[in-house]
Design goal:
Helices cover about 35% and strands about 15% of the residues. It is an alpha/beta fold. β9, α12 and β10 form a beta-alpha-beta unit. The longest helix is centred in the first third of the chain and has 26 residues.
Length: about 350
């Protein structure tokens, strides 16, 4: 019998790849063989950034599969990108597993899937392979998605569009306009409707997976795991836990700012974390010019930035843009009390006032 072989398949976005890579590194150190699947587009970015040094210790084998888009097509239009991905990748994934299991001694014995890509579980089930799922965002975001059938009609519209949703007295409230699928692709209704039906697939996870894992911890969100007791907390999974080239980053670390930072007084610099997919409009960034703060707080955040900041005792200034960032803001400001919200005007813009 060969070495246990896990096929790891994250959704091809930076915020998903990083926690999957961190978990893969830990599994590899325990003796598992890891094949890590990136899209061909992201695979090339990693090789361009790190070259042959991408995995110097040889713990993880990088694999690439097509995502269905051509070079130059916009992968930031997540509705179209995700729809194409779901049409193309299942066939490539199945063919890759069959090829490995025909030709190698270390056959793939488990698929570690992204909670948002239900087709990965379906392929593994069809081939008789055990299935594990990782939820990269918070456990409360997972609970909200599992709650969809009770709250939302078939078009993704909240049953009560004006009532704040709070799943328990100890969890933050969230307004329906900030639901995950309503904050993609600049409000395009076609994309939003597809993303909504795509996310409904999450409700099948517990029927299909042998294990459901989440990138969070009991210390961060004890009430969330009480609401979803079958989920195993294994976080926080963060690229900052590890140095080296195979951190899951699509770009090399830019160290040019370190000399300048070393010359600044303690507590005088604000770190602005815009995230890997945030597009800045002029009016959205203009308010930053000439604005100084002695706090050294963070600004802007996905779940990876949130858990890195919390783990390192950093305070936050919150300006969510899309996806789960609104829920993260609620936790930071309303539950943990470790940050402040920015007030927006009627156009959604933060001014100096």
């Amino acid at each position: 019998m060969g070495i246990p072989h896990i096929l790891v398949v994250p959704y091809p976005a930076q915020g998903h790849v990083i926690p999957f890579m961190e978990l893969s590194q830990n599994l590899a150190k325990q003796g598992f063989r890891i094949s890590f699947v990136n899209s061909e587009f992201n695979h090339k970015r990693i090789l361009d950034a790190f070259g042959k040094k991408v995995d110097e210790n040889g713990l993880i084998h990088l694999v690439s599969l097509p995502d269905g888009l051509e070079d130059g097509e916009d992968r930031n239009q997540l509705g179209k990108f995700t729809e194409t991905l779901c049409q193309v990748m299942p066939r490539g994934l199945k063919e890759f597993i069959e090829k490995v299991n025909r030709s190698e001694d270390d056959k793939i014995t488990c698929v570690l899937a992204d909670v948002f890509l239900i087709f990965e579980l379906e392929v593994a089930a069809e081939l008789g392979i055990r299935r594990s799922v990782l939820c990269p965002p918070s456990v409360l975001q997972l609970k909200l998605l599992l709650h969809i059938p009770k709250l939302i009609d078939e078009n993704g519209t909240p049953v009560n569009q004006h009532m704040m949703l709070q799943l328990s007295p100890t969890t933050p409230a969230i307004h329906p306009i900030n639901f995950l699928w309503l904050n993609f692709d600049n409000g395009d209704p076609t994309a939003q409707k597809f993303i909504f039906h795509f996310l409904k697939g999450v409700t099948k996870v517990f029927e299909t997976a042998d294990w459901v894992l989440c990138n969070s911890s009991l210390e961060l969100k004890p009430e969330g795991f009480t609401l979803v007791p079958k989920v195993l907390p294994i976080g926080p999974l963060s690229a900052s836990n590890r140095l080296g080239n195979l951190s899951g980053n699509f770009w090399p670390v830019d160290t040019n700012c370190l000399q300048w930072l070393d010359q600044q007084p303690p507590g005088s610099v604000i770190y602005v974390a815009f995230g890997s997919m945030f597009l800045i409009k002029y009016n959205s960034k203009n308010w930053l010019s000439g604005w100084n703060s002695p706090t050294g707080d963070s600004f802007g955040f996905g779940w990876n930035s949130t858990i890195e900041g919390v783990s390192n005792g950093v305070l936050f200034l919150c300006r969510p843009a899309f996806a789960d960032q609104f829920l993260n803001e609620s936790y930071i400001c309303d539950i943990w009390k470790t940050g402040l919200k920015f007030e927006r005007d009627g156009r959604g813009i933060i001014t100096k006032k």
